[in-house]
Amino acid sequence: MANRYLREQNYIDGKWVDADSRATIDVIDPATSVRIGTVPRSGQMETRRAIAAADAAFQTWRRTTALERSQLLRKLHDLILQNQQALAELLTLEQGKPLAEATGEIRASAAYVLWFAEEARRVYGEVVPSPWADRRILVTKEPVGVVAAITPWNFPSSMLARKLAPALAAGCTVVAKPATQTPFSGLAWGVLCEEAGFPQGVVNIVTGSAGEIGDELCFSPIVRKLTFTGSTEIGKVLLAKCAATVKKVSMELGGNAPFIVFDDADIDRAVEGAITSKYRNSGQTCVCTNRFLVQSRIYDRFVEKLAAETGKLRVGPGLEPRTQQGPLIDLRAVERVEELIRDAIDKGAGIAIGGKRHALGGNFFEPTVISGAGSEMLCMKEEIFGPIAPVSRFETEEEAIARANETEFGLAAYFYTADLARAFRVMGSLKYGMVGINEGLITTVEGPFGGFKESGIGKEGGRQGIDDYIDTKYVCLGGL
Ligand code: ADP
Q: InterPro entries annotated for this entry (predicted)?
């Protein structure tokens, strides 16, 4: 498929370049297992040059006005929308999600860019009342400097959008490393930034060895901030490495989202929310419901309805217009889902629907509902990242809250109730950074996205989303 956003080179200092060694990595279409193209297998040296380019560009970029940066970001926003079809097709091709979801992601990327184009002009300092008659206290805001961004394969465009946009809005320059499975949607940002007219070196994108590129980004004293979205496991490794240079860090890590349905809830609405929350991107999002906790009295009805709706999902290649569930990212992901199902069955759970590889073969898996799930099962404890929905029974509100919180994660939680007092009680008791009440899909640029506990540090989106890219400077002006 000819796509002008498909680039097979790094974007460093405004130029499209190969790896020094000319070595490449194949990029595979998860729906067909066919090679789409290649990207450079870069390492330390390419990353070092990208950092140097970002550092040089920062010296002038930081002095641009907020209005200039805002206007460039608006142009970038317009370009994304004008080319959303090509960008969405590229995304589906390398990631697998249905084209409608890919288009939604590209629009979300545009929305982040527009939001931060607006926020760029609202980074205010302060003049604080001084305790001294002859001195003034000023608080000013500055961009932190060169930002490193490492992003995952599940949202290869929008995860970069919510790092790039606030960084550029704040006056920072960026070196980005997209996920190895989905580098083209990352590299497409290079094409877009070039077309929008961002000066060379302001945005740099390097593909290749995660370890080598990651180390260079973490240990470089020039890079002043690392923003990462990915697994908690790798996040912890990167955090430790960033300690050496005391970098600012933002971490969007794993989740284990509970979805609680109380017996006073509107069950049909809960099932509808459950389907979107669970099966978006075939369950491969960090805010996807991981475990359903359903109150005893409505448990059987909920399982039955959820299984019935799950059975209606049309599985197929993402580029086919009727598809609602694409393939998983790779065979490893399929094997992992199988392992979780096996573990649940061994420990006494049942399969309400699905439970095996899809007849289409390859990376396709049947959307699955597991009934009778218990806290001791791996699918309740670990992040699933696949289309399986374990459902567990509870008796009381206290039990539901305690079980929802019995995890090291704290990203998103959902619950359904018609009782206002309960809504406030439960909302206040959930140790999660984001809560959906009677809603299963809550992510939007206006809301601050981010987790508690081991799910992360910092917020992306919202008014707060630019804070992590800004240093606050206190100035005492004396002798007045
Ligand atoms: P996922 O399970 O979503 O693939 P990962 O945490 O493995 O999550 O990957 C997220 C991003 O982190 C990807 O861009 C990946 O290439 C990168 N990554 C993986 N391992 C490392 C590492 N050791 N150092 C730096 N980046 C890494």
A: Ald_DH/histidinol_DH, Ald_DH_C, Ald_DH_CS_CYS, Ald_DH_CS_GLU, Ald_DH_N, Aldehyde_DH_dom, Aldehyde_DH_Superfamily, Succ_semiAld_DH
